[in-house]
Amino acid sequence: MKRTLSRMLVASGVLLGTCAISVSQAAEVNAKPDAAAGEALYINGDMSRGVIACVSCHGDAGNSVIPINPNTAGQPYEYLVKQMLDFKAQGDKPPLRNGFDGAPSLMAPMAAPLTDEDIRNVSLYLSMQKLNTEIAPTATNEETMERGMSIWRAGIAARGVPACAGCHGPDGAGVPGKYPRIAGQFPGYIADQLRLFRSGDRNNSAEMFEIADRMSDRDIAAVADYAAGLR
Fold it and tell me: Given this model, what pLDDT does residue 136 score?
């Protein structure tokens, strides 16, 4: 049922692309953000409003050391804004990003008290940071390296899976304003996101739903591990 609904949404154009944003979200993205305010909120939070310090989960300057929490340092500003908005319910519409089986994402209660201004400010701050390659995750499974590299560079032609490098770049750095950096993310986190796209629980990219829907668990595990090691 969930997959059928996702296909209907894709067909009707309701689902957003990987980094496409709605008109209202675009207006928010284009508003002038404050990196200094974003840094203060990231480091200290604001307990008077129930805002938890982002650093407690995502690490110094967006460099996470907790495998279930992604590295956010240096991600495209527009991408970060969109993702944080997608963790929040919009009016009577549920969040576009959920956990497995439709459970609330771990980020849902964190994003709920954030204003659109908070989101813009934190996103600008994080987009200006650098991935710490000394502590960033890397590939660990030599047995799947060749398969992961093949999917990243060439896709899976027989099943219509495009090369990941086509959008996220040969080195996994992503494309500013369009596609996120995948290099240096935790393999388990990458794999989880692909599975969430495939199940429709992460419902904020028509492109990624269609791609992940054609991938097996073996494909996902191999390319996730390979991508983590890119630099």
Answer: 97
